[in-house]
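User: Here's a chain of 122 residues. Predict its fold as tokens.
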Amino acid sequence: MKIVAFCLGLAAILFLSYALGFSRYADFNRSGILGSNGHVVTGGKFGIEVGENYKRAEAVMMSLGFENPELTKAGSCHGYDYGKDLEPHLWFDNSWRKGTICIVTSSDKVRHVSWSYGLGFP
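Assistant: Prediction complete.
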């Protein structure tokens, strides 16, 4: 019985290590558990790089299983204000993580990435 409990505990530790550290969704999983939100204007987040072509960012999001990209009203996304010349694209993570990612573009280039995650959100 102790061996079974040990093996189950070890399996749980290995699974969590993979899910939070090494899987393709590790960054999303950590954000979902921690209830993360934020915004980047340089570098990248979730495999999306500021300055890259939006078509590549769109392909990344679709390959990760995100749903329903919506072009939201210009000016704001996740509480961050943007100029009216920018286009916020809102992507939904409908998995257990329940979150949204906003990719803001101008001239087909990614200018900002913002996100909001929290259990039970949105």
